[in-house]
Amino acid sequence: MAAIVRALDPEGPLVPPPAGVYSNFENPPNGNETMNGVISLSLSLTIIAVTFHICGRLRNKFYIEDYLIIPAIAFFITCHVFVYRITGTTGWFVHGWNLQRKNQEWHLFNIYISTTTYNVTLIFLKSAILLQWARIFCPARRDVFFWMCYATAAVNAVFYLITILIELLRCSPVQYHWNKKIPGGHCANDDLLSPLSAAINLALDLTILILPQRVIWRLNLSFKKKVRVSIVFFVGILCIISAAARLGFAVELLTATDYAYDSSYAVLIGSLELTFAFLTFSLPGVPEPFGALMRRTRSSLEWAGSRAGLLSSSRTLAAAAATTTVTRVKSEGNIYHYDGGGGEADERGLVPTAAKTSSTKLGFDDDTHELAIPAGGLAPDTQDHAILRTTRFNMSETVVADANVDARGVALPRQHPWEPLSSKHETQ
């Protein structure tokens, strides 16, 4: 078989075209836009959800599952890097008669690496989900549910490790996975490996979803927490649907004659399955940092609204002035009392509601001194950097005379300064 492959024309198509169809090697029809859209959406949702989850943990405490999610997201991104490599070269959803044999090596190499990193991602990701369930629903005890979660996580890790080793050792040498021109290379029959792996993967997803059901429906949860749990399990159901679809495509590939085209569906569904699994893990920790972000955003919007109102009020002050009369009365104890009068103003918006000039005269004589400060409007180009309110003061000051003032009005020192004035007047 290898000799036949080596003898084939490298410029020819991978599979013969159907009757009446001609090969198109220059610009073949493809589904790269669909694949790029789905992959980009998967990456974005996953990275955002995991980032929110990690931010929430940084404010509290890291657990074992939080450390497991770090290599999971790293292998997830690596998997999609090799998916993008195919998008930029041979393309996805391209029929085999539109692909040349010389490009087969590149296509199969990227498929092999992306499949391997997909399996490694599931080792860490599903283990993290199960350990998270055990911590959430068994925080202070180790019951049957706790040990079932840990046992399922161990089975998951062992299964995918075996799958990776079988796929690695299936071909000799390893490079024969993608380079079919190596002399003496051969691969064992693995037709059942892909559907078997997909079936066990579906069984593990069902186990992860079913395990906590008995515990959840016995809890007395508030409505808000019930909604949160419902959202998490709704995403888990989407993950199971994706795993079931991938199993269906894996079975179809057993009899597929156009592997390059049909395998594109399995890759697309596998990406969605990983995304839903990451969301299942991350959603329980998202509300806290997301709520803090929303509170900060709402506070910023309120500040912007108050700033706009302040600027609008300053423009109104350019055409009006507020007058406030302040009266200062000096008593014997050198205590000053201030009383506001005149126009009333709205302090929140700094918009005067009335403006009139008034003066107040207090005291025992007719000696009144008025200090008037004019209130002018603000220039439009200085409103943001100048005083936003100008006030006119009419102040009258009255000095209460006593026996210690001479004829010229100069205060004389008292004979007994330590005595209060009131007591002095009482003794006289």
UniProtKB/TrEMBL annotation:
It is found in: Membrane. It comes from the Eukaryota. The chain crosses the membrane at residues 37-55, 67-86, 106-125, 145-166, 198-217, 229-251, 263-286. Keywords: Membrane, Transmembrane, Transmembrane helix. Residues 58-289 form the Rhodopsin domain. One of its GO terms (cellular component) is membrane. The keyword Membrane applies. Its main location: membrane. InterPro entries: Rhodopsin_dom_fungi, SAT4-like. It is a multi-pass membrane protein. Belongs to the SAT4 family. This is Putative integral membrane protein PTH11. It comes from Rosellinia necatrix.
